[in-house]
Amino acid sequence: MTTKQTSAKTLEPPKMDEKEFLPYKGRTPDIIQRPSRNYWQQAFSKLKTNPSALISLLIIIALVVFTLIGDKIWTVDPYDQDLTQISSPPSFNKKALVIPDKIHYQPIIQPSKEEYTLKTTSSGMSVIGTPTTQFIAFKWQPVAGAKGYQIFRHEYLPQHIDDLGVPLGENEGGEHVSYLDALRLEPIDYFYSIIPIFDEGQSTQYSTIKLTAMDAIPLSDAVELGIIPIHQKTNYLGKFIHLPAHPLGTDYLGRDLLARLIEGAKTSLFIGVLAPLIFVFLGMLYGGISGFLGGKADEIMMRFVDFIIALPFLLFMILFKVAFGIGPGESGIFPMLMALILLSWPSVARLIRGQVLQLKEMPYIQASKLMGANVFHLTLKHMLPNVTGLLLVTLTFAIPSAIFTEAFLSFIGMGVVPPTPSWGSLCNDGIHTLLTHPHELFFPALFISVTVLAFNLLGDGLRDAFDVKMKEDQR
Amino acid sequence: MSETLHTQKTTSYPWLAYAIKRLISGVIAIWFIATATFFGMHLIPGDPLSSEKKMSPQIRKNLEARYGLDKPLLTQYGIFLKNIAKGDFGISFTQENRRVNDIIREHFPISALLGVLALIFATLGGIFLGAFAATHKNQLSDHVIMLMVILVVSVPGFVFAALSQLGIMKINDAFNTDFPIAGFSSLSHLVVPSIVLGLGTLAYLTRLMRSSLLDIESADYIRTAKAKGLSNAQIFAKHKLRNALLPVVTVLGPAVAGITTGGFVVEMIFAIPGLGKYFVEAVQQLDYTVIMGTAVFYGGFLVLTVILVDILYGWVDPRIQVVK
Amino acid sequence: MITLIKHFSLVVFLSSLLTACDTTQKETALNEKTQEITLALTAEPPKLNSLKSADSVSFIILDHLLEGLLRYDQHQQLEPAVAEKWQLTETGATFWLRTNAKWQDGIAVTAHDFVYAWQQVVNPKTASQYAFILYPIKNAEAINEGKLPPEALGVKAIDDFTLEVTFEKNCPYFLELVAFMTYRPARKDLHQQWGNAYAADAKTFIGNGPFTLTEWIHGAKLTLDKNLHYWDKDNISLNRINIPYVTKDPSALFNLFLEEKIATWIPPALGQGSIKKALKEHLPLHKFETGAVFYFEFNHRDERLTSNKHLRKAIQHVIDPYLYTNKVLGVPGNTPAHRLLPKWLMGNKKPLHEEYPLTPISIDEKVAREYLAQAKREMNLETIPPLYLLIDDGGNNGNKTGEFLQEALKDALGLTILLDKQIFKLRLQKQYQGEFDLILTGWAPDYNDPLTFADLFYSQNANNSGKYENPRYDMLIESTYKTTHRKLRAQLFAKMQQILQDDAVVIPLYFRGDIYVMHPRLTGIRRSKTGASINFNYASIIPKPTQPENTAEIEKLPESL
Question: What pTM did the predictor assign?
Answer without folding.
Answer: 0.84
